[in-house]
């Protein structure tokens, strides 16, 4: 009698779907954030590729599902405070702009101290990613800030957007040029004055006369509508620049199931590759669109570009020496970056490690 009752109860539970599943799906809640809005590709790709791709791969396994909360455009974490916000757990994951957090990620900014390198976004990204794996101090910059690095992004080559035409380095004398962070070094010795700013301020800064132009990159400039107030676009090619990457709160990451960690790392690596290809394509298209919208596009002559590079003081050597003085491998970072570019076939306009 007891056996019959047990069999009957089991049958009822199975029919009602109340029996314990062989593999109960685990729901994980993560909040993703960024200081920039998704109009900019590095955030857009987190929103439209990274998150959906992670979901897709986890769904294939059937064991884990992430419930995402998205907070873009500084709604949760302000620009320049992403590493602290994610490290403190205000958000779980997001894009950290190392260019705006130089104090915490000084070595990651090496490309900004060695301009006129290469416009190949993929090369710059891969060189820095390799260095972070090979040079312990670079990788530890993330872990010391309570973060796990998942994938990086280099921005398309920086050029010059101005309210006046530029045909030579001499045309910059007496002008105020907005240059973010370390890129202010790129106009030292040219006679121009550097003005601080970021993508969220460029338009109004130029419109109001705070500056006469900006050193920036096509994908950012288009999103910020810079061409409307600075219609002279001079292709100087300061080179593609490593700007940051996707990072996740380390304690949060460490508690995730190994399968989820693996997917996050794999999709992060693919993000690096997809971003490089998409950014290069977008940059070319947006320069064309800006020209169609009335911007005047020109290219700085090669001789003037070389002259500009040689005009600058030894900013890379100063950068490396400063890091060495702080107990960081500055010389190794600088040589690693320049050697990485050359091994990839790039021909920098100036050998920053050599002079």
Name the CATH architecture of the largest domain.
3-Layer(aba) Sandwich
What gross morphology would you assign?
A: globular
Strand content: 15-25%
Helix run count = 12
The CATH homologous superfamily of the largest domain is termed Bacterial extracellular solute-binding protein, family 7
Description:
The protein has 2 domains: 28-154 and 242-284, Bacterial extracellular solute-binding protein, family 7 (D-Maltodextrin-Binding Protein, domain 2); 158-240 and 293-343, D-Maltodextrin-Binding Protein, domain 2, CATH 3.40.190.170. Strand 1 (26-33), helix 2 (41-61) and strand 2 (64-71) form a beta-alpha-beta unit. The strands form 2 sheets. A 6-stranded mixed beta sheet has the order 7-6-8-5-9-11. Helix 11 crosses helix 12 (330-343). The chain has helices at 2-16, 41-61, 82-87, 121-134, 136-143, 202-208, 218-223, 250-255, 258-292, 302-311, 315-325, 330-343; strands at residues 26-33, 64-71, 93-97, 147-155, 158-162, 176-178, 193-195, 213-217, 232-235, 241-249, 296-299. The protein is built from 12 helices and 11 strands. It has 355 residues and is an alpha/beta fold. Helices cover 43% and strands 18% of the residues.
